[in-house]
């Protein structure tokens, strides 16, 4: 943390995007050092990347926020009141609905309300920022900002290497072409499907060592984290593929359901993609951006040629873009023109 800044763990109320029920979510609020500006701290709600899908995977209580701190500390240093959600089911009771966009959007927007209650010196303006899974969450928040966050003034969203589409991973699985990183993530897709469709069975989608070790792959217990690399090394392509056509069709339908974009959104979007990303390939995100353009989304896309999924991060371009959005500079740049 920057010197003089403050970190506060929180628990707040949100809503399930699957059934509309009330939920409890954990998170952390990072308050910048020094006095707040006259109009109050501008707020950025953060969606973190994939850590796991069970109750011990929330990063808020971990010293380095499960490696998220290095990506968001620049936001705190730049003078933003940052609130990071652990998402439903991580660090709080309930099931984590991995990649459910409504739940993710609600979690990020309700985190803004929680931060406002905790820190009186807040602005009414907010933006969403996310990386990987959190990039999808930030994009989803952009699509529901006016509907669900109408009490606050939304200015835009930043999505780094966003996981906005998964059908390509299924296609790769069916073709036996997933790399090791993608093979390790595939069980999380299955977990997301089963959160929405609990009548399904793990064995419909996984087999062999992937099925035998899926709980360890998705857990964040220290003993399981130590085994992740070894477990992933054991997986072969045939173990991370739905065997039956019916299971393939069901998983594809769910992946299409949770893919983004769905609307033109309620504000501008900046998409930052690592050109060497082998987990969420640049062309997949570029196709999502093209679909967004057709829907009327105002989106600026930038590709970082030398960065991969692990190394893409904030830089001055991102900070300048956010600063312009909070300042009300119009119109924001667009890659659709």
CATH homologous superfamily caption of the largest domain: Alpha/Beta hydrolase fold, catalytic domain
Roughly what fraction of the amino acids lie in strands? 15-25%
The CATH topology of the largest domain corresponds to Rossmann fold
Number of domains: 2
Quaternary structure type:
single chain
Number of helices: 11
C-alpha Rg (nearest Å): 19 Å
- Give a short account of the largest sheet: 8 strands, mixed
Structural notes for this entry:
By secondary structure, the chain is an alpha/beta fold. The protein has 2 domains: 5-164 and 262-327, Alpha/Beta hydrolase fold, catalytic domain (Rossmann fold), CATH 3.40.50.1820; 166-256. Helix content is 39%, strand content 18%. The chain contains 11 helices and 8 strands. It has helices spanning 69-77, 101-118, 133-148, 167-174, 180-196, 208-212, 214-218, 222-234, 245-258, 282-295, 316-327, and strands at 6-15, 22-31, 41-47, 81-85, 122-131, 153-160, 269-274, 299-304. An 8-stranded mixed beta sheet has the order 1-2-4-3-5-6-7-8, with helices on both faces. Helix 3 links the parallel strand 5 (122-131) and strand 6. Helix 2 (101-118) crosses helix 3. The chain is globular.
Question: Topology of this protein?
Answer:
Elements: E1 6-15, E2 22-31, E3 41-47, H1 69-77, E4 81-85, H2 101-118, E5 122-131, H3 133-148, E6 153-160, H4 167-174, H5 180-196, H6 208-212, H7 214-218, H8 222-234, H9 245-258, E7 269-274, H10 282-295, E8 299-304, H11 316-327
Parallel strand pairs: 3-4, 3-5, 5-6, 6-7, 7-8
Antiparallel strand pairs: 1-2, 2-4
Helix pairs in contact: 2-3
